[in-house]
Please model this.
Amino acid sequence: VRVATLRRVFRRTSRSNNSCPKATFVLSARNALVLFVLAALLSIGATVYNLSKPPDSGGLAKNTYGTRAHGHRGIYEILEKLRVPVRRSLTPPPMGLGSNDRLLLIAPDQNLVEYESEHLARTAEWIENGGHAVVVLASYADDTWEKLSDNEIWDTTVIEELGFPALALTEISLEAETTTSADLVADRERAQREKVVGVEVTKERSTRLTSATLINDLTYLAADVRQLRLPAKKLQVIETTTATTEVSALTVTSEDDVNYTLVAMFPQGRGQVTVVTDSALFNNYLVDKSDNAVLTVNLLGGGGRSLVFDEFYHGLMARGNPLWLLTLPHYGWLFVIVAFGVAAWIWRQAVALGPPLSPKPVSRRSLGEYLDAMATLFTRSRQKRFLLYELRRGVVWALRERLSLSPGQENVTDVAAALERHHPEKAGHLRSANQKIDGLLGQKQSVDDAQFLEVSREINRCL
Model:
């Protein structure tokens, strides 16, 4: 009876455990490999996408992407709106330049000019074969140029690398020598207004274009130009131009009747180089003043040539990440071909993984199954004497635990005496069953099934 009760309890427990839902996702080798490959592809794709965007530096740089006062985006967009063919070039010149292109170098980085001079040597050859280049020298009014010129001594300049001797440049000031108190108050008020609205404060002065020394091909520059706005301090000009019949020059006359050369054109082989002495004319804060934009458009947009703004010598090609090469068509296709070949080779050499194996069932038995198996074993072996002995021993142990007796009182006499105080009938059944088990164990004949069943029922009445 006791065994049957335990069997039913453990069968219910086994059924309840089997009804629990099983986990469906298993982090197998295949799933881990797929997740790793997807993460790598997403990371590379996101990096290449970010690098494929224009390197505009948030509009802070001094190039055609710059939107601050010292940037050159204004002149680029003016020419673009006037439908002048313009484009930016990040590759070293003269790569990608044709015979109908005009190269524009606006205040190139002096470090790049010195360390990447071989590209300028090839640009000089392109000019001699019929190319046209416009070189705009860095302005003295630029704080960055001022710091560099004080701390560095350059071995070469962009003009010298293009095959010309060094030009005699000088710095002049267009400010009046005497300044009244009213002018100082006006300047102070204007500076405060510009500081409030966030505009870079730059002193300027209007200078009338009264004459243009035109020895050759610069007559078209004076069209519709009546007045220019130039930096009042630190204007860079050519001190003495090697004026010959082969040089064209644009000179401006200040209000004190002094002539200054701002633009000079030099022939070189079948091509020509136009030098603009001060990059301030192309900056955002001066390009819309007076007739500066008209002069700039006449200088850069004439002749029916496509205008190429060089950004290599502004440092925009040095992106600091080798994955930027994937944004270039040739390197991108090369990477795709190599990646496809490697993937095909890995696919052929790898071992194909099959579907994941189902989890192996637990091999150990439950307690109910163990009791069934042991009962069947002992029944078939006809070891009823052993079963009677173990049954009595187990009942006495269970009663001792229930009555809270000490371990040394694990015998029938002590247990029956303690049980008699609470359940006299159960104590009598225990003594009677104990006598019958002793008699069956002491007889020489085998114990039959009827005797075994009778004694088992009587001793179970004690529980």
